[in-house]
Amino acid sequence: MEKYIPILKQTHLFAGVSEKEILAMLDCLQAKCYSYKKGDYVFRQGEHLSYISILLKGSLHIQRDDYWGNRSIVSVVRIGEMFGEAYAASDGIALVNDVVAIEDSKVILLDVMKILTICSSSCKFHSIVIQNLFFAISEKNRKLVQKLNHISKRTTREKLISYLSEEANRQNCETFFIPFNRQQLADFLSVDRSAMSNELCKMRDEGLLTFKKNKFTLL
Hints:
The protein has two domains: about 1-150, Jelly Rolls, CATH 2.60.120.10; about 155-219, Orthogonal Bundle (Arc Repressor Mutant, subunit A), CATH 1.10.10.10. About 40% of the residues lie in helices and about 25% in strands. The protein has eight helices and eleven strands. The strands form three sheets. Strands 1-8-3-6 form a four-stranded antiparallel beta sheet. A four-stranded antiparallel beta sheet has the order 2-7-4-5. Strands 9-11-10 form a three-stranded antiparallel beta sheet. Helix 5 (about 125-150) packs antiparallel against helix 6 (about 155-170). The model has no long low-confidence stretch (mean pLDDT about 90).
């Protein structure tokens, strides 16, 4: 687990905490590390969580399938990002989505009550982590609002423009990669895949963008 300390240091949760202090806290927080193969479920809908999770390796999708098997991708979890905190910090609320490994992944779990309860030594960096948790949850809410902004657009083109524009701005480049294949992008934007692919081809023919697989260039 020690080799992942540099990744943890870059997370929102451990911002301002040194690598030495993080290592000291992992035992206190009863940290557990698990590996998942591509396609494995990290968590399933209906589970109750008592741990905050951070992705150390790979990529995850938070997704939900309806009764008929229609899938909606709620969000993507990237290396260093936290997930599950909204349910771990709530009293008895069951998970409403699945968390699935999109590639071979490694996840660290931290006991949420150990985070929220100051230990007897009252170490100052523990207080920093509690403060960071609040800001991390606020950041997560901001991302959900951004997604709502995408999917609330009326047309498939407007949804594509909204999402691709945000990715270009986030990566600070007109050429960028997205973390989805075509079906996953359609699931994320809540649109029909065929209609979305047709719209992308129209936008390309109109000179608005170019693309190859998950690489896009806005013109």
